[in-house]
Design brief:
The structure holds two protein chains of two kinds. Chain A is mainly alpha-helical. Helix content of chain A is 68%, strand content 1%. Chain A is globular and about 65 Å long. In chain B, helix 7 packs across helix 13. The chains are: A mainly alpha, B mainly alpha.
Chain lengths: 499, 376
């Protein structure tokens, strides 16, 4: 089930009511049951993959726990590594590598007949396999103790709020919370609901609405492996604006999902890690990655970047580590060269910024615009936002050649009228109305995110909670009315569910 | 938890009240752009009309008010018939009742003397239709109970008997909270909820399908016209319709008592206001005949006109008169309007509204009509 569905609107209150109604000692079982129900409502048979991953990691971690010598723990860690990555490879990357191998063989006129896997990508596989991997690696390193209780461990892997699109939780953070008794706390529940409300605002009011305009320029997957290209080919400003809108769409979509996940968990007393901290207010690419998809960034830093040597190596090697890590992160998103390119470009940005920091440390914007720090900051934010939009073109396109084509279109003649007036499908609300509504809500988002940004990582629920009652109630009423009246009600899955 | 539930309840009440205030600012027709356009045109000078033709596309595309008025006035000039076609695609009888209720409520309704309602099944509320304002706008506190009851009565199978009423109730909830309808509200208040062409070239609500295809050659109608109007499909459709008609023509046991009661109440209420009501059953693809024909058979003969029997009206199954499988083209609509006008006059005679014909009827078919859609 997706969060923006009727099923979830029924599931959430029922699950929460039952959670607080049953005795503490059975709550884990209830949460486990509800998590599997949540996941199986997509495709029941894919729950076996989670069961497989859970069982392998439970057994290997407990086998490692019995070994004091790290070398003796290694084979178990490798079993876990291969089974989790094998699962990910089989379901997500096999066809990609199979096609690449076929192309190589074809080029040498060698017969190659390994068939494709025609399987649906299991929802959230990249998230729960990474979460499971972090557990076994931490046990291997001795950072956390192996969980003896199979039920609690299974719950850690499958906990429904973050099962399909994160945040990717670390065992040390989430496992103890799942074991603790959390009584019903009015203030905490209120904060959780506030976060959920804000998440819905981002997802169903902004992200899904912007999708209309992005789709009109970039086209859309037809859900069967094909791609529906738009009937009208836009050029110039509409392409640039659609790319900006996509950057906002993907932010609202993914962070909206995370808000709903974090809010749902908070209601039950579990604090999940914030995955986004107003990323488009970043003043450098490195800062951007400290604010965007934080749990993945930290995961890759801890389990890939640092093992590669991190920054405690030669400068050239460090640049390679940065670039390689971000390229792998791009590939994590999907088995398509477009995602590799997305990571590659971000890696390139990081390399450039590192080189500049080392060799041209005085080349900063503030030097050219002295005594105007606000203007400098705003210009830097706009600059970084636009830089992040370039890899987003690859992220959103069907193929590398499509992405280059889109970039080429940006330099062609533009007609805004077609984009603003005719982007919506026939019979839907005219796109000009949707366009202006979108701009109003983006302005609201910007205002709220700016207020969170200047309060240094504040969360919306904390900021609302400290206001006087009339401000709080105005917030609730305004946002409830907006979410109800301006929700885009055609079913639209979260973009990151595909990863 | 009690405190939380109370506060959430209070919040929902406030949001509900705000949404109701917004809804009160909207005309009854806001949920359907074609209807809204028709209502806007009609409202410019409502007093000139004394006849309302309400129904689905089988009214919209088949009855030309200009021709209808001329046909009736030629025989009964004193009636001064001036009609307006309020047919809209996929309109269902509960929507027609909602429209009539609102049209009679708006201002002075003394000028309305005659009403025709096209009979169709209760809106089939599939899950895919949830959220669509066209499916939601006509729910109100007055009709939701009957709609749920009627769908419970007419649906088959336990799942549908409970599922469909639930979907109606859920949709009513959606409408009450204006779910996803903010842009439509803005469109309405910005005066953009209008499709000028949909009132037709004579601005009387009739718009033949050929004319619409001519005006919008890139639209979906061209696909319907080219793909569906083959002789094989027409024959298949006619045979199926005939078979279903033969099966249910004498069915008296009404599967939907709520809808019957509502229709009879409308007839009675309108009679009290000296308004004549005629319920028309058009020829359909045969779908829901098991539901519609028994319902039709329970309406008094003086208040009904039936075209459901294909063999009684072969001209409506001829390729040159059809636009697609369910609709006539403009030449078919011309034929239909004349026949309908004659039959409608008969009903007025039966109702005692007018004296028997002073001149010979325009169309001989009118003499063979039995009121059940069957040729004698």
């Amino acid at each position: 089930m997706i969060f923006n569905s009727l099923q979830f609107l029924i599931f959430l209150p029922v699950a929460i009511f039952l959670y607080f109604s049953i005795p503490y000692k059975w709550r884990w079982l209830f949460l486990l049951f509800s998590s599997y129900y949540f996941y199986m409502s997509w495709k029941a048979e894919y729950a076996f993959l989670i069961v497989f991953s859970t069982t392998v990691d439970y057994l290997t971690a407990n086998a490692m726990a019995k070994q004091t010598d790290k070398r003796k723990r290694r084979p178990y860690m490798l079993i876990s590594l291969f089974s989790n990555l094998g699962l990910l490879f089989s379901f997500k990357y096999f066809n990609f590598f199979n096609d690449a191998t076929r192309a190589v063989f074809d080029s040498f006129d060698i017969f190659y007949n390994v068939p494709e896997f025609n399987l649906f990508l299991p929802v959230g596989i990249s998230f729960y396999t990474f979460q499971a991997l972090s557990y076994t690696i931490d046990v291997y390193r001795g950072d956390v103790k192996a969980e003896k209780h199979f039920g609690y461990f299974a719950l850690f892997i499958s906990y429904w709020p973050q099962l399909v699109a994160g945040p990717i939780e670390r065992p040390g953070d989430l496992q103890p919370q799942l074991k603790r008794n959390h009584d019903f706390d009015y203030d905490r529940v209120k904060k959780g609901l506030t976060r959920i409300l804000y998440g819905f605002f981002k997802k169903v009011v902004i992200a899904d609405r912007l999708g209309i305009f992005v789709q009109a320029v970039y086209g859309q997957s037809n859900g069967m492996g094909g791609w529906n290209y738009p009937s009208f080919e836009h050029g110039g400003w509409p392409v640039v604006i659609a790319t900006w809108l996509f950057a906002i769409q993907v932010y609202c979509d993914f962070s909206g999902y995370c808000d709903i996940a974090i809010g749902s968990a908070k209601i039950m007393g579990h604090n999940l890690t914030d995955n986004f901290r107003t990323p488009y207010f970043s003043k450098s690419i490195r800062e951007f990655w400290e604010r965007w998809h934080i749990t993945l960034t930290v995961w890759v830093r801890d389990y890939l970047y640092i093992p590669l040597g991190g920054s405690r190596v030669s400068f050239g090697r460090m640049l390679f580590n940065n670039w390689f890590t971000l390229t792998v992160m791009g590939f994590w998103h999907g088995a398509n060269l477009t995602y590799v390119m997305f990571g590659f470009i971000h890696g390139f940005y990081i390399v450039v910024s590192r080189v500049r920091d080392k060799y041209m440390p005085k080349m900063v914007l503030a030097k050219w615009i002295p005594n105007m720090p606000i203007l400098v900051n705003v210009l830097l934010m706009i600059w970084i936002f636009n830089l992040t939009c370039i890899p987003d073109i690859f992220f959103r396109s069907n193929s590398i050649s499509d992405a280059w084509h889109i970039i080429g279109q940006m330099f062609k003649a533009s007609t805004m009228h077609e984009f603003i007036y005719n982007s919506a499908p026939k019979g839907a609300v005219p796109s000009v109305i949707e366009f202006w509504i979108s701009l109003v809500f983006i302005a609201m988002l910007l205002f709220i995110d700016y207020n969170l940004y200047i309060r240094k990582s504040a969360t919306i629920e904390d900021q609302v909670a400290i206001r006087p009652w009339y401000t709080r109630w105005s917030f609730y009423i305004i946002f409830l009315v907006i979410v109800a009246c301006f929700a885009v009600t055609t079913k639209s899955a979260f973009i990151y569910f595909a990863f | 938890m009690k405190k939380l539930i109370l506060r959430i309840g209070l919040l929902l009440v406030i949001v509900f009240a705000i949404c109701q205030l917004i809804l009160m600012s909207m005309p009854f027709s806001w949920g359907n752009t074609r209807l809204n356009t028709k209502y806007t045109t009609y409202s410019e000078n409502p007093e000139q009309y004394n006849t309302l033709l309400i129904g689905a596309s089988t009214t919209y595309r088949h009855i030309d008010p200009k021709q209808f008025d001329a046909a009736v006035n030629a025989q009964y000039p004193d009636l001064h018939i001036k009609s307006f076609n309020f047919g809209i695609p996929a309109n269902r009888t509960p929507q027609s009742m909602y429209m009539l209720e609102n049209l009679l409520k708006e201002g002075n309704t003394d000028h309305i003397k005659y009403v025709v309602i096209d009979l169709s099944e209760l809106t089939k509320m599939g899950a895919d239709n949830l959220h669509k304002k066209e499916m939601l706008y006509w729910y109100n506190w007055g009709n939701i109970g009957d709609v749920m009851k009627a769908s419970y009565e007419s649906e088959k199978g336990t799942a549908n008997k409970f599922g469909v009423p639930f979907l109606h109730a859920f949709s009513f909830g959606e409408k009450s909270f204006l779910v996803g309808m903010g842009p439509s509200v803005i469109m309405q208040h910005a005066g953009l909820n209008i499709e000028p062409l949909s009132v037709g070239p004579d601005k009387n609500g009739f718009y033949s399908l050929d004319q619409e295809m001519h005006d919008d050659p890139e639209g979906d109608l061209a696909i319907r016209y080219n793909d569906l109007r083959t002789q094989d499909t027409i024959d298949f459709r006619t045979q199926r319709c005939q078979m279903l008609y033969d099966k249910f023509k004498d069915a008296k046991k009404n599967p939907n008592k709520t809808m019957e009661a509502d229709l009879l109440k409308i007839i009675k209420d309108c009679e009290k206001q000296d308004i004549s009501v005629v319920i028309m059953l058009s020829q359909r693809l045969g779908d829901r005949y098991e539901y519609l024909i028994p319902l039709y058979n329970r309406i008094p003969e003086k208040n009904r006109i039936g075209f459901q029997n294909p063999s009684a009206y072969p001209m409506f199954n001829e390729r040159e008169n059809l636009f697609d499988l369910a609709h006539l083209n403009s030449s078919g609509a011309k034929l239909f309007t004349d026949i309908f006008a004659d039959q409608w006059i008969d009903r007025l005679i039966m109702q005692g509204k007018i004296a028997p014909r002073p001149v010979a009827p325009l169309n001989s078919l009118q003499q063979t009509n039995s009121g059940t859609g069957d040729a004698l």
